[in-house]
Amino acid sequence: MKNSGISIDQLKGEFRRQAELQLSASSSRKDSSKDAQPEHDSHKTLAKRPQAQGISEELYIVVLCYRTGIRWDIDNVSIKPFLDGIVERGLLEDDSTKQIKGIVKLPRRCKTKAEERTDIEFWSADYFEPYIDAARRLRRERIA
User: Fold this and answer.
1) Using CA atoms, how far apart are residues 85 and 47, in angstroms rounded to an integer?
2) What is the Cα gyration radius of the chain?
3) What is the predicted pLDDT for the residue at 108?
4) What kind and span of H or E run contains 24?
5) What pLDDT does 70 receive?
6) Under-70 pLDDT residues of the chain
7) Please, what are the domains in the chain?
């Protein structure tokens, strides 16, 4: 199956605004790979930086875990404090299954400790659900 990808122009309004905000924030950061020190206190980021409008539709959360190690436990990556914070700030209405239909964690390799990070993406359930269903059908066909 070919991955066709999606461009920022194909996103719905609120997701496009969120992506543009994230891209503009990441392009203005200085290169901290020399000293591997964080540029800001991530606990204060939501309070200081402008946020996209609240997301009210059902969604999937994709967690991209960039690590240098060959072996590490992906289940140790917790996003609960992050989800609680974004609900408190009003970006999400709810962090229950009423709004979040699933969480997908994907391990990714990076070369240096300074590049290690966890990226969290929000995907519309209307967009993502058909891919989940197609993967389930393919799995059932292979088992049968």
Assistant:
1) 10
2) 17
3) 92
4) helix 13-27
5) 73
6) 1-8, 10-11, 22-52
7) 12-25+47-143 (3.30.1330)
* Total residue length of the chain: 144
What is the rounded CA–CA span in Å between residue 99 and residue 141? 30
Question: Cβ distance 103 to 61 under 8 Å?
Answer: yes
d(CA 74, CA 65): 8
Segment holding 125, helix H or strand E: helix 125-143
What's the burial of 4, exposed, middle or buried (CB within 10 Å: 0-12/13-18/19+)?
A: exposed
What's the pTM value of the predicted model, to 2 decimals?
0.59
**Long-range contacts formed by 72-81: CB under 8 A, 24+ apart:** 72/107, 74/105, 74/107, 75/105, 77/105, 77/118, 79/103, 79/118, 79/120
Count CB atoms within 10 A of the CB of residue 127.
Answer: 15
> Helices (DSSP H) in 35-124: which residue ranges?
45-48, 80-88
Question: Do the beta carbons of residue 120 and residue 63 sit within 8 Å?
Answer: yes
